[in-house]
Amino acid sequence: MLGEFKKAQELENVVLEKRKQFLGDNHPDTLAAMGNLAYTYSTLGEFKKAQELEIVVLEKRKQFLGDNHPQTLITMGNLAYTYSNLGEFKKAQELQIVVLEKQKQFLGDNHPHTLTTKNNLAETYRELGQFKKAQELNIVVLEKRKQFLGDNHPDTLTSMGNLALAYNGLGEFKNAQELEIVVLEKQKQFLGDNHPDTLIAMANLACTYWDLREFTKAEELELLAS
């Protein structure tokens, strides 16, 4: 899989250079190629290279499309994601707050893009140790995803797991445990015992059992997850 992304990166570099040559630096197709290459760099874990490209794309899209255009907001969200992966959580937070306000204004509170940004901002708050803010956003996203996607949708389960992590950060281990048990059961049911997401859910619940001093349960889960 990694080899395929490496090949994609090489091709995308060629495409970008050709588009710069024949269309110019500011053409929408050139910027799209730049965004695609940035995404591939992110997938390969080359976040610094992704960041450099995304900053250029964002500035160009602001200039030619305006601050409120959907493509501008998508690029801003992508750059925020890259900042998060570089550990620059304050920068990520600043961008995500802007994107969220714009999406609420133009798409509404319940749009999937708005909920994704809320979810991402909650993760950033958690990384910054702002667990109460993370919890509040996670609760909103979870309720909306249950409402619009159903209890068993992967995005709903992701939201449930994220809320559990926020509860853990607040020391509310029983609340975290209740959610993590549900997530684990659903992941086993729909993905199977050995799926990476199931194993992550297992490891998260094991950590919570340790925090609750339920050592036997924690050890049993860790053995299953290993």
UniProtKB/TrEMBL annotation:
This is Kinesin light chain. PANTHER family: AAA+ ATPASE DOMAIN-CONTAINING PROTEIN-RELATED (PTHR46082:SF11), ATP/GTP-BINDING PROTEIN-RELATED (PTHR46082). It holds the Pfam family TPR_10. InterPro entries: NLR-like, TPR-like_helical_dom_sf. It comes from the Eukaryota.
